[in-house]
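In this supplementary section we document a worked example of the pipeline. Step one takes a protein sequence of length 319 as its only input; no multiple sequence alignment statistics are reported here. Step two produces a three-dimensional model, which step three serialises into structure tokens for compact storage. The input and output of this example are shown verbatim.
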Amino acid sequence: MSDLSYQVMVGSTQADLSSETRMVQECLVAQGANVSGFSFPKHTDNYLWKLNLNCLNNADYLYLIVGHQYGPLSPTGVGYMHRLFASAQATNKPIVSLIYNGQNKPYGNAADKTRLHEFVNQLKMADHYFWHDQSTLLHATETSYELMLDKAPARGWVRPEHVSKHSGQEVNILRRQIALLKKEMEQLRQNRLQPLFDQKVTLPYQCKCFYGGTLKTINHHTEWSLDEIFLAIAPIVMDEQSEAKVRSSFFDQVLDQEKPALGRMAPEAHAFVDLKIPQNTFYSIKVLLRSYGLVAVRKGAWKLTPYGEQCALNRVEVN
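The serialised model returned by step three reads:
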């Protein structure tokens, strides 16, 4: 016997199918299923619909029991049972419909009878079984469940204490294989990025300098590798930062590194401030970092991607 358990949601209308619903639920439990779902009463509300939708989302299979009536209507004008069927279809949930075809005719007004007829026609396009009494309902439930497990195998679940030692070993082996694959993928990405990090980027800039009480502007340029640029920007954008903050922080770092060269160019100056790099150069850096998946920019804010964060940590270790 398999250790797997399956979650089966049972949907029905409460007014005319209370005993039949209980019978189907007991039959499924007897076959090892875990049953969920709430019957829709004649007068219901959207809260019960949400509860049933949660049951459906967690279920491996959906069983619909259809009797003499269409059932209560939702605010959309479609029956709650009908909506349950549509939601299961939309998520490719395996569905079994148990449709009444006995002597008793459907009851309700003409509109409800029409709705029921159209609903049943839709159910007949998928897996369905007919019943007309308790015996045929039980037989349909038992038969359909066995066939559904073979036809549409579900993932199911298993209690931890039922996992065999051998299965645990297999899980550990798979985990080690996944870890190795991740490491290989990371190495490939690093190899692909190495030429990028090694390439040089020319950074033209303007800087203001003070000569006594006089302010002058120096035009010059420097050359940084993209590795240096990335390591300068990465700590700033570990947390989300505005582009203005990124730009000013980066410019300040460039200024700090350029002060010795500026001092040689203008030895009479006693202060250097307000270094600026042209917008098109800064934009090119931004495009490069984004195109290689290192930085994400959303609504004007910069932030390292998970890959960029890992890459930054690796670059720090290397450097």
